Amino acid sequence: MPSIIKLIKKTYTMIEHPGSKKGLNNVLSLSGLQIITYILPIVILPYLFRVIGPEKFGLICFAQAFVQYFMILTDYGFSVSATKEISLCIENKKKVCNVISAVMSIKTILAFFSLLILCVVIYFVPRFKDDWMVYALSFGAVIGNSLFPSWFFQGSESMKYTAKLNIIGEFAYAFGIFLLIHKPTDFLLVPVITSSSALLTGLLGQYILFTRFKVTFQFPQQKELHRQLWAGWNVFISVVAINAYTSTRIFAVGLLTNNSLTGFYSIAEKIANAVQTFPLYSFTQAIFPRLSKIYYKNKLKAFEIMNQVQLITIMISLIFLPLSFILAPFIIKLVCGGTYPAAILSLRFLLISVFFISSNAFRVQFLLVCGKTDIYSRIHITMAAIGLPLIIIFIYSFSYVGAAMATAIIEAGVFTITYFTVKRLNLTT
User: Rounded to a whole number, what is the distance in angstroms from the first to the last CA of the chain?
Assistant: First the structure.
C-alpha cells in the first residue's frame, strides 16, 4: 500500500501544473460521484429486484440495453473528439461556441433519427410491440443523455459539474424508486423514473453550460458539421464495435433466453460494472484532457504518465478484485435474496474481465490521446467480429453464464492486442 501512495504522489506531481489543484479536484469530484453511485445500487438493486421480480427486472434491463444503442448513436464519437478539441481551444471562446453549436446540433438530429427508428421497431417487431410502453418510456434516457454536455465539462476540466449533476440525478432516481415502486405492477414506473432523472440532469447541464460558461448557440455552418462528424467517426465506429460485445450481452441474453434469466444476468453485470467504474472512471475522465495537453507538449512525458497511472490501477485491482471474487456468493444472496450458482459464476467471470479492463484502460485511452483513432478503431472492430459470434455461441451452449465467459475471453484479447500495439508506438519528444 505505501508503494501505491508513493506512485500516486509521483504521478500527481507530473500531471499537475505548479500551483494548480484543478486536476486533483476533478479526480476528487468524480470519485465523490462514484462513491454515491457505488453505494446507491447496493441499496436500490436488492429492493427493485425483489419488489418487481426477476422477470420484470429482466424486461426493464433488456429495454435499457436496447435504448443503449440509441445513446451510442447520439453520443457519436464526441465523448472523445469534442472533449479533446475543447481541452485544446478552451481559451478561444469563439471556437468553443462553434464546437458546442455543431455538436449539439448533430446530437439533436441523431436523437430525432433514433426516435424514428424506435417507432418503426416497436410497430413492426412483435417482441417489442408486446411491451411497447417499456421501450417508449425508456427512450427518455436517450434524450436526457443527449442534452447532458459531459464532453464539455470534461474537456474544460470542470468535472465538478458532472459530479454534482449526476449525484442529483442518482438521488432523484433513488427517491422515485422508493417512493413509487411498491409492488410488481409498478414496474412501468421504473423506466419513467429512469428517464425523468436523466432529463433532469440533462436540462440542468444545459442551464449551467449557457449561464455559468456564457456560451452562445449559433447555427453551425455545414463545413463545421462535416468537420465534427469526420473527427468523431473513427471513435464512433470503435464505440459501436465495443458495444457489440458489451451492451449486446444483456440484449443477446434477452433474445436467446427469457426475461427471468436476463434479470439474473443483469444483476451480475451491474455489480461487476460497479466494481469496474470505481475508482477507474474518476481517473480516466479526469486525466484524459490533461494528458492530451501534456502530449501536445511532450510525448515521452505523457507516455510515462500513462504507464504510471496504468500501474496504479493494476495494483488497486489486485487488492479489491480478489476480495469481490471471494464475496460473490454473499453479494448475489444480498441482492437476489437467495443462492443462485449460475449468477455467482457469471459474476466471477465478469470480475475476471474487469481485471483485464482495468489493466488496459489507460493504454486504450493513450491511443486516443496520441491521435491513433484508426488503430483504436481496428482493434475494437476486430474484437467485435470475434466477440459477437462468441457471445451468441456461448449463450446457446451455457445459457446466460456463457455471456460472462465470452466476456472474459474477449477482454483478455483486447488487453493482449492493445498492450503490444502501445508498446510498438514510436514516440519522439
Answer: 33
